[in-house]
Write a structure and sequence with these properties.
This protein is of the alpha+beta class and about 600 residues long. It contains 24 helices and 14 strands. The strands form 2 sheets. Strands 7-14-13-9-10-11-12-8 form an 8-stranded mixed β-sheet, covered by helices on one side. The chain has a 6-stranded antiparallel barrel with strand order 1-2-4-5-3-6. The chain is globular, with a radius of gyration of 24 Å. The relative contact order is 0.14.
Length: about 600
C-alpha cells in the first residue's frame, strides 16, 4: 500500500476547493496514479471512523480483496483482484476507489445499484461513469476479458440460486453452522499459542473461501437485484406505500433478533426499573450486583452477550471494543425499552403487524397488477422474502471473525507490553501489520516509541478533519451535476425517503450511540446507522440520517418495522438541534424544522 498526498477537488456538492489530502490506494494498478475518484459510498454507513494503522492494514489485506473478489466473481487472492483492490483511505478514513471498482462489470453494468446504496452520491457517480469520465485504472485487454467471463459465470450461478428455492434455506443453515463455529473460536484461550501460529490461523480464517458464507456479498447482491426488480415491475402501477409494506416483517433477520432478545431482557428487568432509571449505564453493572434479583438478571444478560456480544457501535473498526467488552450501549437500550409507553406496540408486536401488512400488501399488489404480470410478481416476491435477510446475515456472522482478529492482536499487544516493546496492550493498533508479523517471526521490534507517538498524533489530527464524501483527483477532474447548495437557515431539509410514513416530534441528535439516551417517540437524527444501532429504532418516532440509501442497513430495518425514515439529508446533525421539534414526511423525503 503506497501513501501519496493527492490534491483533490470536491466538485460534487457545489464546492470547488482544492485541498491536499493524504491518500492511500491499495489497488496495485493505481500505485503510481495521482488522480482518481474516491468516495465513502458503501463505506460511509459502516466505516464511519479514522482507522488506526493496524486497522487500515487489516481492511486493506482482508476486507478490500473480499469486496473486490466477490463483486468480480474471482478468488480474493487472484492477482487481478489485488490489482483492483477497491479499498482506499483519505486521511485515514476508508473510501471506495471507484477508479478501480468501475472496471468490474458488476459495477459498470449495474450503476443503478450505486444509487440504491446512496441516492445523491450514487447518482453523481453513475453520471460520471456513463459519461466515461471516471478516470479508470488501466488494465490489459486480457484482464478485461477475464473480468467479463467471470461476470457471466457469476450471473449463471446467481440465476441457479434464484431458480432453486432450497438454496436460501440451505444457506441459512450454513450461516448458523458458521456462526456457532466462530462463537466457539472466540471462546478459545489464546495464551498457549506462539505469535506466528496465531497470525497464521487468523490469516487462514480470513482467506479460506471454502465456507459458503464467504459468498455473502453475492447473496446480498441477489437481494438487491430482487428489490430493484420488484421496484421496476411495480413502478407507476403500485402506490409507494404498498411497495414499502412488501419489506415489512421479514423473518430470519439476525439484526432484528438482537432487538427482540433485548426487549425480552427489558421485560425481565421491570422489577429493577428504578435501578435502570436512576443509575448511569457505566455503573449499572456494579449496582445490579448488589441484589440477588439484579444478579439473576445479569446472568441472563451474560447469555445475551454470549450470543450477540461480538457486535459494537463502530463494529468494523478493529480497535473499537465489542459489546462483550463494554455493554454500556445495551444497558442504555434496556433502560430505553423500560420507558416504552404501556399502550404502544412492543417490538414483537411491531414485527407481527409488519408481517400482516406485508402479506396484505402482496395480495393487494397482485390484484392491482395486470394479469400477465401477476405470476412474475409472485415468483419474485416469494424469493425476495427468502433472500432479503442476507442483507444482514453476512455481516452478523463474519463480525465474529473480526472479533477474533481483535482478540489475537490484543493478545499480542499484551505480550509486547510484557517484553517492554509497548506501554499498553491497545498500543498494538498503532503498529503496521508487517511490523507485527516481523516481530512474531523474529522476536525483534522494528519500531520506536517516537514513531508510535507520531502515528497517534497524526490519527488525532485526522479525526478532527472530514474529507468530502465524493472527491475527484485534479488531473482531468470532471464536473458533475450537483444540487443547489442549501442556505444554512433552511427550514425544510430534503433527502431520500426509504420507509414511508409521517411523524412529528422532538429531535434527538446522536452521533455516538455509546451514550444514546433516546426517549420513546423522539426523532433519531444521526450521520449514519449500521446494524448495531437497530435497537434504538424500536423507541424512535422516525429516523433522519445524513448517509444512506434504500438498501442501507437502516433503511431495510426501518421498512421492516414501519419506522418513517429519510436518509441522505445533508448536514442534518448540524442543522437540527436536540430538542428542536421536527416534522418528517417520509413519503416525499422532507424534514420540516418547526
Amino acid at each position: 500500500m503506497r501513501s501519496v498526498a493527492l490534491s483533490i477537488t470536491n466538485e460534487i456538492f457545489g464546492v470547488n476547493t482544492t485541498v491536499d489530502w493524504p491518500v492511500e490506494r491499495t489497488a496495485r494498478r493505481a500505485a503510481r496514479q495521482t488522480d482518481g475518484v474516491l468516495s465513502d459510498i458503501n463505506f460511509g454507513e459502516v466505516f464511519p471512523f479514522v482507522a488506526k494503522p493496524l486497522s487500515r492494514d487489516v481492511l486493506a489485506r482482508y476486507i478490500g480483496p473480499m469486496l473486490g473478489g466477490q463483486v468480480a466473481g474471482l478468488s480474493r487472492s487472484d492477482p487481478l483482484v489485488l490489482d483492483l483492490n477497491p479499498m482506499a483511505f483519505v486521511a485515514g478514513r476508508p473510501y471506495m476507489d471507484l477508479s478501480a471498482y468501475i472496471n468490474l462489470p458488476s459495477i459498470a453494468y449495474q450503476l443503478h445499484l450505486l444509487e440504491a446504496v446512496d441516492r445523491s452520491k450514487g447518482r453523481a457517480i453513475a453520471e460520471l461513469a456513463r459519461a466515461k469520465r471516471l478516470n479508470r485504472v488501466p488494465i490489459p485487454v486480457t484482464a478485461r476479458l477475464r473480468l467479463h467471463l467471470a461476470y457471466v459465470r457469476m450471473g449463471l450461478r446467481s440465476l441457479r440460486w434464484l431458480l432453486r428455492r432450497r438454496t436460501p434455506v440451505e444457506l441459512r443453515d450454513a450461516y448458523a453452522r458458521t456462526t456457532e463455529r466462530l462463537r466457539a473460536l472466540v471462546r478459545r484461550p489464546l495464551d498457549r499459542d506462539e505469535p506466528s501460529v496465531l497470525l497464521r490461523d487468523l490469516d487462514r480464517e480470513f482467506t479460506d473461501e471454502s465456507d459458503p458464507t464467504k459468498d455473502g456479498l453475492r447473496h446480498l447482491g441477489l437481494a438487491m437485484f430482487l428489490h430493484t426488480t420488484l421496484q421496476r415491475l411495480c413502478d407507476g402501477r403500485i402506490p409507494p406505500d404498498l411497495l414499502d409494506d412488501l419489506a415489512k416483517g421479514i423473518p430470519h433477520n439476525p439484526t432484528t433478533a438482537v432487538s427482540l432478545d433485548l426487549w425480552a431482557l427489558a421485560q425481565a428487568a421491570r422489577p429493577l426499573a428504578d435501578v435502570f432509571e436512576k443509575t448511569p449505564p457505566e455503573t449499572l453493572a456494579r449496582a445490579l450486583q448488589t441484589t440477588e434479583e439484579g444478579r439473576r438478571w445479569w446472568m441472563r444478560f451474560d447469555e445475551l452477550l454470549a450470543q450477540h456480544g461480538h457486535r459494537g457501535e463502530v463494529e468494523l473498526d478493529l480497535s473499537a471494543p465489542r459489546w462483550r467488552e463494554d455493554p454500556t450501549f445495551l444497558l442504555q437500550t434496556v433502560a430505553n425499552y423500560l420507558r416504552h409507553p404501556a399502550g404502544a406496540l412492543s417490538p414483537p408486536a411491531m414485527l407481527a403487524e409488519g408481517q400482516r401488512r406485508r402479506e396484505a400488501a402482496a395480495e393487494a399488489v397482485r390484484r392491482k397488477l395486470p394479469l400477465p404480470l401477476r405470476g412474475l410478481f409472485t415468483w419474485l416476491y416469494e424469493r425476495y422474502v427468502l433472500w432479503l435477510p442476507f442483507r444482514e446475515a453476512m455481516k452478523y456472522t463474519w463480525l465474529l471473525g473480526l472479533e477474533q482478529a481483535r482478540r489475537v492482536y490484543r493478545e499480542l499487544g499484551r505480550r509486547l507490553v510484557a517484553a517492554g516493546h509497548l506501554k499498553a496492550a491497545d498500543d498494538v493498533f498503532w503498529l503496521r501489520q508487517d511490523e507485527v508479523r516481523a516481530w512474531a517471526e523474529t522476536g525483534t521490534a522494528s519500531w520506536t516509541q517516537d514513531a508510535l507517538n507520531a502515528r497517534a498524533r497524526e490519527w488525532r489530527e485526522w479525526a478532527t478533519r472530514r474529507p468530502p464524501s465524493l472527491i475527484v483527483g485534479t488531473r482531468g477532474a470532471p464536473h458533475a451535476a450537483s444540487p443547489v447548495a442549501r442556505p444554512p437557515q433552511a427550514m425544510v431539509l430534503r433527502g431520500t425517503p426509504v420507509s414511508t410514513g409521517h411523524a412529528e416530534g422532538v429531535a434527538r441528535v446522536i452521533t455516538d450511540p455509546h451514550h444514546a439516551e433516546l426517549r420513546p417517540g423522539e426523532v433519531l437524527v444521526t450521520r449514519y446507522t449500521d446494524p448495531a444501532w437497530t435497537p434504538l429504532f424500536f423507541t424512535a418516532g422516525a429516523l433522519i440520517a445524513e448517509i444512506g440509501g434504500v438498501l442501507s442497513h437502516g433503511a431495510v430495518v426501518a421498512r421492516e418495522i414501519g419506522l418513517p425514515a429519510v436518509v441522505g439529508v445533508e448536514g442534518a446533525t448540524s442543522l437540527i438541534a436536540t430538542g428542536r421539534r421536527v416534522k418528517v414526511n417520509a413519503r416525499d423525503g422532507t424534514v420540516e424544522l418547526l
